[in-house]
Amino acid sequence: MPPRRSLSLTVLASGSKGNCIHIDDGETAILIDAGFSCKEITRRMELYNISPKKLSAIILSHEHGDHVTAAGVLSRKFNIPVYGTTGTLNAAGNKTGTLFQRKDITSGVPFAVDRFLIHPFSISHDAADPTGFTISSACAKIGIATDLGIATTLVKAHLMGCHALVLEANHCPDMLDRGPYPWALKQRVKSRAGHLSNTAARDLLGELANPSLSHVILAHLSEKNNLPEKANRIVGEALDQTTTKLFTACQPAPLAPIRLTMPAARPLCA
Ligand SMILES: [Zn+2]
Ligand SMILES: [Zn+2]
């Protein structure tokens, strides 16, 4: 079978009320996280003619409700295996219930889902064993890192050389300080196990920008402590000298699919 030469990336929703990303090369389709209702996820999929019946995997980054809410229902309804670290799957168990199939993965150990090679890596967040991911297909490498308090050297190493990135730009520190959250929650968001600010995302992106990076999607924006235009402006500073396209995902509506085509790219996996 010839390697596929395009990959579609659709952020169905992103934010503290629910996260779900669809990736499809025409042969294999996966979801990263399924953090809002099954009904709403399938409704948003229908908008782009995405069928849940074609999903080969649901891969969970961590057990927080905004990432796992519909994982169990989707898994049982459409016979989809659910992947996650043992810590994540154990901690998510009371939210997901019984899964069609449980697939334990290990941080740092790559695994294959059909034609995708997926590399989970540890992120700093207040969950049992949270991970970010890179997903490599025959034509492109996508990096996903949301829900991380700091961008460690390990995170940077994994996200190097991506063609597309879904990157957290959670809050504006000033808005968070002046905003409505109770003190303890503000401290949690700002902590090493919390969420990445606009300026931290900009600094990270500054290190990751490369000529092959065609698309960046800002994700997991706080609805109370950030504004899309502010995140776009600040994080976008890292892309000033590049041709990389910058998008911002939001909670109420999906971001239209982004198609990555790399006709000249050397296959990353067979
Ligand atoms: Zn989250
Ligand atoms: Zn979280």
Automatic annotation (TrEMBL):
InterPro entries xrefs: Metallo-B-lactamas (IPR001279), RibonucZ/Hydroxyglut_hydro (IPR036866), WalJ/YycJ-like (IPR052533)
Top-level taxon in the UniProt lineage: Bacteria
Domain named Metallo-beta-lactamase: residues: 17-220
One Pfam family matching this protein: Lactamase_B_2
SMART domains: Lactamase_B
Full protein name: MBL fold metallo-hydrolase
Originating species: Desulfobotulus pelophilus
